[in-house]
From TrEMBL:
Limits of the SIS domain: 40-222
GO molecular function, one term: isomerase activity
NCBIfam families on file: PRK02947.1
InterPro entries to which the protein is assigned, alphabetical: SIS_dom, SIS_dom_sf, SIS_GmhA/DiaA_subfam
The keyword Isomerase is assigned to this record: yes
SUPFAM superfamilies given in the database record: SIS domain
Record protein name field: Sugar isomerase domain-containing protein
Highest taxon of source: Bacteria
Pfam (any one): SIS_2
UniProtKB keywords: Isomerase
GO biological process, one term: carbohydrate derivative metabolic process
Organism name: Cohnella endophytica
Length: 251
């Protein structure tokens, strides 16, 4: 994060910081991006599936069913709700509501299978859900790729009983290079910084992973399923054929 002089044009500062962020990602994460693409391409070639889980930012919306996006990227999401609105009592504060261990049962109810790939996005990587999901998925035989801010997460204590953060639980880690606390610009006379880095960075990383994955599959004689914009004439028919093709071939 950088402290900006009072007279600075924040729009210009933002674009400067984004350019610097993406350049840093390219310089430091290209090898991990290529490894992720190799893992994903090989899994697709073997008939396995690719699952995307994000803790609430943009990945599982940015990547799923997009024009120009790989149709084989599929969202993994879950909802768990308990309704039990009795009056509050002193013992309530002593309960562990982290739901640690729930992911074991959630994965059994999902469509994940051994050999699949699961991409988990979490900026801080410290909360119970993504850590528990990564640990259980690997036990299940799924390859886990973590997308997180290593510099940020390193400063934080894990909420999980294992003491591990997401970057310590995955088969492969891609650092989104977001700064600690995520926001990039400290504005004078404001108590909170603005313009988080992780969303733009993570989206760019995963599109780079897609580009490399398409290249690898094409070199292996596999033409992956990619959708066209619905605003393109004939795209409904084209996409319908592509979606049925994916169901038949897995790629």
């Amino acid at each position: 994060m950088i402290i900006i002089p009072q007279q600075a044009d924040l729009r210009q500062v933002y674009f400067q910081k984004i350019h610097e962020l993406l350049e840093r990602v390219e310089q430091t994460q290209s090898s991990s991006i290529d490894q992720a693409a190799e893992i994903i391409a090989s899994a697709i070639e073997d008939g396995k599936c690719i699952h995307i889980f994000d803790t609430g930012h943009m990945l599982d919306s940015e990547l799923i069913d997009r024009a120009g996006g790989l149709y084989s990227f599929k969202r993994l999401s879950m909802k768990f709700e308990i309704q039990n609105l009795v009056r509050k009592r002193p013992e309530d504060g002593e309960k562990d509501r982290s739901l640690e261990g729930l992911m074991k049962y959630a994965l059994r109810s999902s469509n994940l299978q051994p050999g699949d790939v699961l991409v988990i996005g979490s900026v801080s990587g410290k909360t119970v859900l993504p850590v528990d999901l990564a640990l259980e998925a690997r036990q299940f035989g799924v390859t886990v790729i973590a997308l997180t801010s290593v510099s940020y997460s390193t400063l934080l204590k894990s909420d999980h009983s294992s003491g591990k953060r997401l970057f310590e639980t995955a088969d492969l880690v891609i650092d989104n290079c977001a700064p600690p606390l995520d926001a990039m610009i400290q504005v004078p006379d404001m108590d909170a910084a603005i313009c988080p880095a992780s969303g733009i960075s993570s989206a760019a990383i995963m599109w780079a992973v897609e580009a490399k994955t398409v290249q690898i599959l094409s070199q292996r004689g596999k033409t992956p399923t990619v959708l066209k914009s619905i605003n393109n004439p004939g795209s409904y028919e084209f996409n319908d054929i592509q979606m049925r093709r994916y169901e038949e071939t897995g790629y």
